[in-house]
User: Fold this.
Amino acid sequence: MATEELISKLTSLNEEFANALIQLSSEQEIREVQAKYLGKKGMVSALMREMGKLPPEDKRTVGAAFNKVKSSIAGAVEGRLGELAAAAEKADLERTVDVSLPGRVRASGHTHIVTQVRDESVAIFGELGFEVAEGPQIENDFHNFEALGFAKDHPARDEQDTFFVDDGKLLLRTHTSPVQIRTMLSEAPPIKIVAPGAVYRRDDDPTHSPMFGQIEGLLIDENVRFSDLKGVLLHFVKRYFGEDLEIRFRPSFFPFVEPGAEVDMQCSFCIDTDSSRCRVCKGTTWVEIGGAGMVDPVVLEHVNIDTEKYTGFAFGMGLERMAMLRHGVNDIKNFYEGDMRFLTQF
Ligand code: FA5
Assistant:
């Protein structure tokens, strides 16, 4: 056989093999056909034997052509086997999984509504430059009462009805105001902080819970006035509850501020409607959100701040109270009963 004829036969064999391969759909068939072409008694091997008869100068070219065909056949076999394996896997999956079914949606968790109130409040005060300060929930008498001006027999200590621990040596903080003391003892003015966190009291009714959250604010600097306090709280209420709401201050007593006030905001629920039957403000059109005032110079003296140079204001608001007002919740227990039908609304 002449060299050209041999190469041409070889090329045809390769094409023939490729055509045959497409028709095959099992590994066994493929291996059989592969042996028919490449095996010792196969068609390619038979052609190879012809090579011995060729002129020596052609042997190198023809040898290279054989190698090319052999590796082309081997590659095509591997490719086809891969295709068949993928198709089998897909068919297998389709047998066991109905891919036309809609996917299962996993319920995604989210932060608790009171945490949301805390984070949003912190962000709003953050815009005004207040930084977050923290203190322990288990406090001592000094930080929770004494340094804040509650005398040993002060009636306010009873009012707050404290949970004591460790035989009365420690207590669960009854408000976030001890963080004021801790901050003023560790930092020099100017001070501008908010302190959110859990506090505890022996309270239990639809608007009072034994554990609840407060956010405290404290600003100490030169020339701080009551109007600054009013401006900050008004800004907060408008940002958090709504632009059209006003606040008012009612004179009140807290041992650590002078003057002191209770802060009310206009009831966001009945502002545009008949207030007389409003379940949130009980027809009064105002709701209390916290206490506030100018830091009493006696407190500043307890923490060695120069009262000639510095003045300051402080405020403390209830986080659940804020959530109740914003969302029209009328029983504080809803926040802590863990009923997902309630909690997932927020
Ligand atoms: C205080 O706790 C003062 N420390 C606030 C303060 C800070 C005044 C700085 C002046 C300067 P009061 O006891 O009023 O104040 O509580 C503040 C707010 O906490 C209340 O307006 C109310 O929103 C909330 N609150 C009080 N008791 C409870 C309770 N048991 N459950 C839920 N919220 C409560």
Notes: Residues 3-93 form one domain. Residues 175, 177, 201, 203, 208-209, 212, 214, 216, 254, 257, 260, 288-293, 314-318, 320-321, 332 surround adenosine-5'-[phenylalaninyl-phosphate] (CB under 6 Å). The CA atoms of residues 7 and 292 lie 100 Å apart. The chain is about 45% helix and 20% strand.
